[in-house]
Specification:
The protein is mostly beta strands. The chain has one domain (2-179). 10% of the residues lie in helices and 47% in strands. The chain has two helices and 14 strands, in the order αββββββββββββββα. The longest helix is centred in the first third of the chain and has 13 residues, at 2-14. The radius of gyration is 25 Å and the shape is globular.
Amino acid sequence: MRALLLVLCVVIMAGCAKSAIWVSDPVISEFENNDTKISLRPIHSDYYDEEYPGHDAYNRFILTVENKTDKVIELNWNKTNFISDGMSQGGFMLPAILFVDKDQPRQSDVVFAKSVLKKDIYPSSLAEFGKGWYNAPVVVGETGAFITLNIDGKEYQNKLTSKLRIITHIRCGSSIKSEDCLKNIEPISTTPPR
C-alpha cells in the first residue's frame, strides 16, 4: 500500500510545474502635456533558445510619441537613455541598427505635426550576439527610459519607468496537493528484514 501511495505521489508531483510570470507596474508608463503624449511599454522577448533562460522575460520596449502641435518634434536618441534598476545604462538600439553600431551616435527621429511615432527599442547595454543579435532580459526593479525631445528649439526630458517583478508559482494538474500527499508516506526502512 505504501509503495502504491508513493508511486501516486511521484506521478502527481511529476505533473506539477514551477513557472515564473513577469509583471510590470504600471503596464504602460505615460507622460502627457499640451504638446506631447509619450508612452513606454515593456515587451516580452520573442526570442527562444533552450540555452537562453530569459525567453519569457521583458527585453525591449514600445515607445510611442504623439505630437499634438503644429510643429515638428525631434526625438534625440543621443540623449535618450535606458534606465535599469533606477540608473542610466546607456542608449537604445533600433531593429535596423547593426550590432557593431549599437553604441554609435544616431540621428534624431522626427515626429511630424499632429502625428505619432511608434518604435520598438532595445537597450544597447543588453544587446548580445549569437544567432544574430538579440537582447538579454532587463533586470527586476525600476526600468524604463529617459526620453529627450526637442520642441521648437527647447529641450524637454521625461523619465518613464515601471517596476518589474517576477511572480513564481507552482501549478499542479490534480486537486491533491503535493504537501498533503507526502505527509501520509512513512519512511521506508533500508534495513533488511530479519
